[in-house]
Amino acid sequence: MSKTSVRTADTSSIDQVVVEAPARLHLGFLDLNGGLGRRFGSLGVAIDGLSTRLVATSIPGPDDEISGPEAARIAVMLPDLRRRLPGLPPVRVTLQAVIPAHSGLGSGTQLGLALTCALTRLAGQPLDLLEAARGLERGARSGIGIGAFLSGGVILDGGKGADDDPPPVIGRVDFPTSWRIILLMDGRREGLSGAAERQAFKNLPPFPAETAGDLCRHAVMAFLPGIARADLTLAGPAIGHIQRRVGDHFAPAQGGRFTSPDVAAALAGLEALGIAGVGQSSWGPTGFALVDSPERAEALAGQLRFQWPALEIVIVQGRNEGARIQVGTMPAMRP
C-alpha cells in the first residue's frame, strides 16, 4: 500500500484505506471574552504514542460491518456519512486502536475525521477537511483537533467567528524533537463532554478582556517563540501561566483548577521540582508536563509512578506531522 497526503484530491479506485490519527493536547483558550468578534482561540500540540487507527475496506455487502473499540460511535456516524457519500460501497470498518475517550485528548474529533477521510476515499471523492468537520459538528470552539489531523505540530487557532466555520489555524511550529511530554492520566475520572460541556460554558462567569489580552501576550510573545527556539525556560513558564489563569476560570465547572485531584497534586509536585510547563489538556483529566530531554522525562516519570500508583504515567513526543493515510487495492482472492 502506498502512503498519501491527507490533502490529496486523487480519486482513483481503491479498496482499502488505513488512517492513523494522532491524539492532541489542548493547552488552553486565549480569549473567552470575544469582544473583538471572535471567541475562544486555542493553543495545542499533536502527540505521538496515542492515536486512533482504523482500516476501512470495501466489501460485497450488503451490510456494513464494524468491529473493535468505539464501534458504537462509528455506528452512529456511519449513516450520516453514507447519506453524504452516495458513491460509497458497503464497508468493513475495523478499529485497531483508539485514543482514550473523555480524557482531554481529542478522541471524538480524530475518530470522526479518520472515518470521514477513509470513507471519502473509498467513495472516490476528494476530501474537504473543513466540510468534514462541519458535518461531524467538530471544531465548534477549537481548531486544534483539525490542525493536528492535518499537519501536527504546535498549533494556534484564531477563534470562532459568527459563522459555522471551525476556527482557522493561524500559526504552526514544530515541537522540539529533543523534548518530551509526560502525560498523567487518571482513568477513574472523565472530562466534560456533550450536553454537560455545553451547559458548563453557559454557566461560566464573564471573562475579562484584560485577562484575554494577557493570555494572548503570553502565547504569542513567550510560548510560541520558546517552542520555535526550543527554549523551555521561555515556553514552560508561559504555558504554566496560561494554564493557571484558564484553569481558575473553569474551576466552578470542573471542581478546581484541574479535574483530577491526584493529577493536580502530582503537577504541584513537579512545579516544586522546577518544572514550570505543566497543566491539563482540555477538560482533563489528563495532565501534562513539558520536559527538555528524554533522560529527564524518564527520571520524573519514575518518581511519579512511585508516588502516584493510581495514575498512568506515559512519556510521549510532539508529533510534527498529521494523520498518516495509506490507500491501496486488496489482492485478489486465490481459488
Automatic annotation (TrEMBL):
Per the database record, which ranges form the GHMP kinase N-terminal domain? 81-153
Q: Which Pfam families match?
A: GHMP_kinases_C (PF08544), GHMP_kinases_N (PF00288)
For this UniProt record, give its keywords in alphabetical order, as a comma-separated list: Amino-acid biosynthesis, ATP-binding, Kinase, Nucleotide-binding, Transferase
Could you tell me which residue ranges the GHMP kinase C-terminal domain spans? 224-309
Q: Name one GO biological process term.
A: amino acid biosynthetic process
Put simply, this protein is called Beta-RFAP synthase
- Give start-end ranges for the coiled-coil region(s): none
Print the organism lineage. Answer: Bacteria, Pseudomonadati, Pseudomonadota, Alphaproteobacteria, Geminicoccales
Identify the InterPro entries for this entry: GHMP_kinase_C_dom, GHMP_kinase_C_sf, GHMP_kinase_N_dom, RFAP_synthase, Ribosomal_Su5_D2-typ_SF, Ribsml_uS5_D2-typ_fold_subgr
One GO molecular-function entry: ATP binding
- Species for this entry: Arboricoccus pini
